[in-house]
Amino acid sequence: MINFIKENLPNVYQLGLFGDQGWLTAIGQTLYMTFWGAIFGGFLGLVTGLILVITDTNGIKENKVVNFILDKIVSVFRALPFIILLVLVTPLTRSIFHVGIGVNAALVPLSLSVWPFYARQVQVALTETGNGKIEAALASGATFWDLIGLYLKESRSELIRVSTVSLISLVGLTAMAGAIGAGGIGTTAIVMGYQRYYNDVTLLATAIVLLIVLIIQFSGDKLAKHYNHK
User: Fold this and answer.
1) CB 3 within 8 A of CB 165
2) Alpha-carbon separation of residue 50 from 55, 59, 166 (angstroms)
3) What is the mean pLDDT of residues 185-204?
4) Which domains does the chain show, CATH number per domain?
5) pTM, whole model, 2 decimals?
6) DSSP-assigned letters across all residues of the chain
7) Are 201 and 12 in contact, with CB atoms under 8 Å apart?
8) Is 17 exposed, middle or buried (CB count within 10 Å of its CB: 0-12, 13-18, 19+)?
9) N or C: lower Cβ tally within 10 Å for the chain?
10) What are 34-82's pLDDT values in tens digits?
11) What pLDDT digit, counting tens, does each position of 72-119 carry?
């Protein structure tokens, strides 16, 4: 197997598995950016989506001013192309990590990019929770946090579906971030493959990204189907 790769995919073999440009290093960087970008951006998106739903008209904490302002903020950030957002938040990134490039520096723009995208999807998923169930819970004396729990429980299958979509989108963003120096599979595909005309490197990097996406999609579908029957 090693001899086959060495003879037919010489540039892939040359990069090796470890080291600054190794394949396992690049995969680890991509997974690192995806995981922490999902944690930070996902948390912000979930909280934002919840606030948008509960402050909306007829929401459990209706507040038109808060809803209007937050809605516009989400819309503005969602409309920003990732490459522009990456530049705009550079001062914030440097203030947190003291560097402007690298896997850690990429976490700030990645989180801020997935946040509005996920917030909108959470908003839609939670809105589909039946108003009748919320009204019944209110009539039975449910507290504010009881209602939040009800929203999340009734929407968990749909939340898993939208989380899957957001994760897949985030993988694509890590590849884009990697293409401009953040590391990961994106750097391998563009810098080590495309720019050097190493087609074998570009093709393998693309295949790895597709495999990660397929694993996320399969896992998300299985989880959503599982909780849909509970």
Assistant:
1) no
2) 8, 10, 17
3) 84
4) 2-228 (1.10.3720.10)
5) 0.86
6) -HHHHHHH-HHHHHH-SSSTT-HHHHHHHHHHHHHHHHHHHHHHHHHHHHHHHHTSTT-TT--HHHHHHHHHHHHHHHHS-HHHHHHHTHHHHHHHHS-SSSHHHHHHHHHHHHHHHHHHHHHHHHHTS-HHHHHHHHHTT--HHHHHHHHHHHTHHHHHHHHHHHHHHHHHHHHHHIIIII-SHHHIIIIIIITTT-HHHHHHHHHHHHHHHHHHHHHHHHHHHHHHT-
7) yes
8) exposed
9) N
10) 999 999 999 999 999 999 999 988 788 889 999 999 999 999 999 888 8
11) 999 999 988 888 888 888 888 888 877 777 788 888 999 999 999 999
* Distance of alpha carbon 127 from alpha carbon 60, whole angstroms: 12
Structural tokens at position 112: 């801020």
Given a cut of 60, whether residue 229 has pLDDT beyond it is no
Q: Which of 101, 123, 104, 126 is nearest to 35 (CA)?
A: 104
* Token pair listed for 127: 């809105």
Question: 69 CB contacts (<8 Å, ≥6 apart)?
Answer: none
- The label of the residue with tokens 């074998």 reads 200
